[in-house]
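User: I'll paste a sequence; please echo it back and then give the predicted structure.

Assistant: Echoing your sequence first, then the prediction.
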Amino acid sequence: MMMAAFFWLRSMEITDNLIELLIQIVHRIGVRAERKVEKEILNDLRKLSNKYGILFNMAQSAVSNPEGVLRDVIIPVVNEQTLRDLIKEIKHTGPAYREKINTIIRASYGSHYRRMVPEILGILEFRSRREENYKALKQPLDRKHSLQH
């Protein structure tokens, strides 16, 4: 009886350690991807100061002269390089930023973690009190299992 309790307790500890390892791997993948993208962006950008002032001046010029040509109305108020820098900054902070991080996460998983994570998932047994949570988790795991065999 004592041995059975010991083995049960030890199996729970191993399961907890595997789950902790899985969480750490997923977290590490995300953090590394964010760091890589942020480093790339910092190398690519020079921070614009007074963005709202620039946008205000552009909007005010456009509204005060709606029939005007961009080169005659906007460029005298905000130079072309500032507009390019503004576009770069907005591009690197919006949905494109998250998409770039997700691309790096997928590449990182595909090249390095792909061997490790399925092994961990194969060892663990997943359960849930809520049926919809269980189904949402079970379907991808079953699909993965069927592809491996």
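The two ends are 37 Å apart (CA to CA). The longest helix spans residues 2-44.
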